[in-house]
Amino acid sequence: MTTQTLPRTTSGWVGLARTGPDAAQGPAVVAAVYRLWLLAFALKMLGSTWDMSWHFKWLRDDAAPPHLLNTAGTVIVVALVLFQAYHNVGVDRAAKRLMVGGTATFLIAIPIDILNHRINGLDITAWSASHALLYIGTAFMLLGVARGYWISTPPSRTRTVVSAFIWGFFLENVLFPSQHQEYGVLSLESWRAGTPTAEPILLKFAADQIGRPVDDIAVQGFALPVDAWVYPAWITGAALLTLVAARAFVGARFTATLIAGTYLAYRLVVWGLLAGTGFPKSIPPLLLLAGAVAIDLVFLAFAGSRARKSMIPAQVGPERVTAAKAPTGLALALVAAVFGAAVATAATAGATWVQAFFIGAPPIDYPAFAYGFAVLALGWATITTVTHRQRT
């Protein structure tokens, strides 16, 4: 692949956008397109991170700087989807449908969310239905990008690293709503300590919506509007499942650990930037790293057990290999999935207790980890079944 095949003039780029790349330009255009996807998601991630902190300080504003940053990323996304869908650049049918469907869902959710705010005033929680449409649209969009990049790029270390970054953006999207509790617990503590981080106009607006004065009940309803079971169930059943999917998709050792570690490093850097400029602080989910390490270790242990134990005789015909391999290998893989879900859940619950003891954590209903385990085990087993069928 060489960038020398790309246009050097504005008119050349306009012509490329109208007609699509020729055979010689194809690889370079695919690479450029997916680099722009990374830029778009980086802008959207920075905007959403800033947005969460912003909403714990000031009243909502459609034209707030975090929204504009996110919008810049969205504009790039729309342009890329139109280009790739029209010219079939770096996509197959499944990837194109995921990209188009996800982007359409996201765009439809924007006016719905704005209308929701106009009708209902301040939308206090990140867990609302209109916000969920934004997350779901972004998730499908990212799945399309992950698939499109993987099938259109030759196997290489670069493909592995970029794919891991795409799944890192997916993890950030999954974890965005749970940041409400990570900010909310400190926001409530600040209020109770007499040093609220939210502006008085925001607290009064939130209190007026439920017909109360600005008191502890009103502030708690603004800062922590969901039950204590939501956070542990979501971290286990959604975030850990994302890491399982990333490890199965990318296939590299310690994929889950590197993605979780990179995400946490990003959160810590942004924490310093936001806190240093007067924005409210949050509690990063450091507990996630324990579950990620457990996931990678289970994948490694399972791969090692398959290498050590020859479950199929070496001297057999192809028909017997297929018949013997499918049920035995799948059964062992499903056992590993359920075992892995149990280990990862236990590791995350233990890390949650340690984090809560040393630096704090959102309100945690520890039995709710069982809900997350059930979802994680089912999801891990489903991913295992699908990938096993593809291999056989």
UniProtKB/TrEMBL annotation:
Highest taxon of the lineage: Bacteria
Keyword Nucleus tagged: no
Transmembrane segments: 28-47, 67-86, 98-115, 127-146, 158-176, 229-250, 257-277, 283-303, 330-356, 368-387
Keyword vocabulary terms for this entry: Membrane, Transmembrane, Transmembrane helix
Recorded coiled-coil stretches: none
Protein name as it appears in the record: Uncharacterized protein
Organism annotation: Catellatospora methionotrophica
Lineage of producing organism: Bacteria, Bacillati, Actinomycetota, Actinomycetes, Micromonosporales
